[in-house]
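[[Encoded backbone]]
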Amino acid sequence: MWPSDRNTHHQKVIEVSESNTAYHRFLVFVVMNISVLVLSFGIDYWCLYWINPKSFVGIDPSLTVPEQLFETWYFSVLNYSFAGR
């Protein structure tokens, strides 16, 4: 995320929170942000696994790359749902 993007994102958060936004639009906004966060961490975890497979002991080395990506994405979902609140 570039610094200018961060400022734009921050402005969007303020705009949505201060305006009289419809509930469904706000819900979509929140879901999209959480989805990007979870996906980003899933990809980060996969990159760590790709660099050093010993980083994540529970992932079977014989899995294909899409299966590894699913495993790391699922790990990200679990981490967010338990600790990311």
User: Anything to note?
Assistant: Helices lie at 3-18, 23-51, 65-83. The chain has a mean pLDDT of 84. Residues 60 and 68 are 8 Å apart (CA to CA). The radius of gyration is 16 Å.
